[in-house]
Amino acid sequence: MSRDITVLGLESSCDDTAAAVVRGRDILSSVVADQTDLHAAFGGVVPEIAARAHAEKLDLCVETALQQAALSLADVDAIAVTAGPGLIGGVLSGVMMAKGLSAATGKPLIGVNHLAGHALTPRLTDGLGYPYLILLVSGGHCQFLRVEGPTTFVRLGSTIDDAPGEAFDKTARLLGLAQPGGPSVEMRALEGDETRFKFPRPLLDRPGCDLSFSGLKTALLRQRDQLIADQGGLHGKDVDDLCAGFQAAIRDVLIEKSRRALALSEGITGFAVAGGVAANQSLRSALETVSAEHSAPFVAPPLALCTDNAAMIAYAGAERFAVEGADDLTLSARPRWPLDKQAPALIGSGRKGAKA
Ligand code: KG4
Ligand code: ZN
User: Fold this and answer.
1) Strands, E, within 241-328: which ranges?
2) What residues pair up with 21 in beta bridges, in sequence order?
3) Residue to substitute in 168, 247, 281 for testing ligand 1 pocket (most ligand atoms within 8 angstroms of CB)
4) pLDDT range class, residue 314, cuts 50, 70, 90
5) 346 partner at 20 to 30 Å CA-CA among 55, 221, 229, 241?
């Protein structure tokens, strides 16, 4: 049974270097080394800097994760690694490290789709049964997925442009707030009046579950520039109100689209949210309300498991291993790797190379 195997997981697809040891649904250790300081001066993640930092930090993260789990590499049954999608240099750092560990120890190597890691997190944290609906909402992605099995995902809708986390990050940059933008904007929004500035609610006038967020950033830019032109700068209250208005627009769009996705999802065991933006409290509580309207149990994993981590990769690796077995040393790092079955590249096809 996959539930009982002990998996070492590695994650390095964006700006967090992470290693974790998971046995069944028990997280024996989860180490995350974030790179916020390295990228702070650039206003966003610099792929080359990220890749180098991953290469430098991965072995230390693995060592710490094993120490905290009180295990040695010999006690681990398999090695799971994010093989995409993500920034290719970072993904390569992780895949190379995992291949090295696998070749040296003879332990099975499992390539994991980063999005599958997020999408299966409600099973790790709450044991949610298949099928369920999940809103995956992060810095690079936004999609509604019906999760039917460890490698079976049906996409009901997705963003046609920016991801919400990206929009939060850009908004923070436009307002001179610290990165990552989500927590900064959320904190300023707490004191803000969400009704003072008008923000659009993109795509609500069209049927379906697709989303769009790039217009919100443009709306914010215009309102900011208007304030600067009118009064020569931004007051603290302006920033608070802009953040509150922007956050409310993202929340309202996600809520209405969640209603529609739930209406399309018969027979689900629950509605879950995952990805970095799921850390947003105002969004979490609004999603909980929508879930209750549809009598679907709501699952929001703890914040540390909503943002990037390696426990979710280890867990998703164990589930994938149980149904599809291991990869071999030809496992490829893939910058793109869609989850849904309709797409040409299926989860688990990493060993055949990047196709998505
Ligand atoms: O899932 P994640 O850690 O990385 C990937 O994108 O895969 O998500 C990071 C994103 C960033 O854009 C960050 O600004 C956003 O999640 N985020 C938030 C909050 N915390 C993190 N967005 C809104 N509110 C938050 N509290
Ligand atoms: Zn992520």
Assistant:
1) 271-274, 298-299
2) 8, 29
3) 168
4) very high
5) 55
Length of the chain equals 356
Q: How far apart are CA 104 and CA 120, in angstroms?
A: 29
Whether this model's pTM surpasses 0.85:
yes
Q: How far is the CA of 182 from the centre of ligand 1 (A)?
A: 6
CATH 3.30.420.40 residue spans of the chain: 6-123+304-338, 129-296
Phi, psi of 267 (to 5 degrees): 75, 15
CATH topology for the 6-123+304-338 domain? Nucleotidyltransferase; domain 5 (3.30.420)
Q: How far apart are CA 44 and CA 111, in angstroms?
A: 27
Domain boundaries 129-296, CATH class: alpha beta
Which residues have CB atoms below 5 A from the ion given as ligand 2?
138, 308
Structure tokens at 338: 């869609």
The verdict on the CB of residue 308 being under 6 Å from ligand 1 is yes
The answer to whether the CB of 350 falls within 8 A of the CB of 313 is no
pLDDT for 350 equals 28
Query: Atom 2 (ligand 1): residue with closest C-alpha?
Result: 276
Rounded-to-integer distance, Cα 146 and Cα 265, Å: 8
For 38-72, write each residue's pLDDT tens digit.
Answer: 777 776 778 878 878 888 889 999 999 999 999 99
Instruction: List Cα–Cα distances, 92 to 14, 25, 81, 181, in angstroms.
Output: 11, 27, 10, 26
At 336 the pLDDT is: 87
Higher pLDDT, 87 or 172: 172
